Write the structure tokens for this entry.
Amino acid sequence: MSAEEGPHLPGEGQATPAGHMSPEPHNRRRKRFRVGLLVEPSPFSHVSGYANRFTEMLRYLREAGDEVAICTPDLSPSAPRTKFGFNVTNLRGFRLPMYRMVVCSFDWRLRTVEVMERFRPDVLHVSTPGFLCIPGMISAWLLNVPLVFSYHTHIPVYARRYFRPFGKISETITWWYLRLIHSQADLTLVTSPQIQEELREKGIARVSIWRKGIDTERYHPKFQDEDMRFRLTGGNPDQPLLVYVGRVAAEKRIEDLKDVLQSIPGARLAIVGGGPQEAALRAHFEGTPTVFTGMLSGEELSQAYASADVFCMPSDSETLGFVVLEAMASGTPVVAVRAGGIPSLIKHGATGLLVEPNAPRRFGAKVRKLLRDKPLRERIAKAARADAETWDWRSSTKDLREVQYAAAMQHHEDKIRHRVPWFRRILPSMSFSFRGFLGEFSLWWNDAIAGPAQPPREHGNGGQGLSKGPS
């Protein structure tokens, strides 16, 4: 195996069920990690499956006794200063012009570099695609620590769709940018075998699958609720109910469900979620039995999943599709497009039904098949629930810590040893002066941008997030 290929990791080509861990590379088991985490947009104010993934990851890193320093752009008044006892640095940011719900940051002040220099992480984990990956790369290079990217939004599909008529050119530029950025990572994490394969085909090396997890108590058939069904059907609970849950945005192709709805006599559609396309979709579905609920959370969201007859996922751009997994855990059969990461969740004909992209009529035919065949619907719902129960966040995070972070650290050491051995030899003697230079540079940059910096305030955990913990 070449150095470029990197170590073989769990999920390379197939999913790894909970409780079945692969051997740890190079016996690099650690009791504690110090993880620098740069996430964009904020997982604490941006509602998505990706946000849920990071929240659960932090929960179980805390359970494992790790220390985490978090940097994320957040403009909300309620932006947290701590999460699970970990310090959160809220960066100044801006809203994307074409997607106002998403807040990003260039971090011109290099606050991430300053925070990570004080924290001294063992590994730096940065979400992509976005803008924070640039200061993330700078931090990893200056601090000489392993860099892990996790890829959550399949941006080439967005570029093709949002920048018409220059979609093809935009997609080509996007892939060039992704190759450039991810070539700097010691490991890239993705959420499905399909996305892993596509990134590899496009020339991105060292790609591993960050396993999925689901809270099967929060999403459960027991939350089926008559009042919620009455609400979602617009007061017609005896009629077939189709449900979509997720962002209301162009890339989700929700408009395709109009043809599906109109092909099923008496059917009702509930669209659960919010987003930039909501006004346009309300106009598009005008005159149809469609209910827009806006954002739901907590028990209401659990009830919405469990009270539907069929869950519909028309999107062809999902890197994974957490809402599909949540519907499966809720015992609601799913019809989804065979694209992106969805096929890694659904076994066609067993735990759900898949349809080829750009085929609304075939999608409608699959939905009708489920509605007409109650035994099939119940069999798929039961199998989907059983499949969802095999995944949990604790084992996913254990895999992340003990296998994937360890593999990134090993690759980082190999890279230094084989490519720049002289730098590795003199690094200890440079350590003190280097830290001084970095501190002075950060202070100068902050003064130049925003005036003299105020003494940093530490929040939560008694400032322990900045102390050197056991390794």
Residues 25-213+393-464 form a domain with the Rossmann fold fold (CATH 3.40.50.2000). Residues 1-8, 10-28, 421-433, 452-471 have pLDDT under 50 and may be disordered.
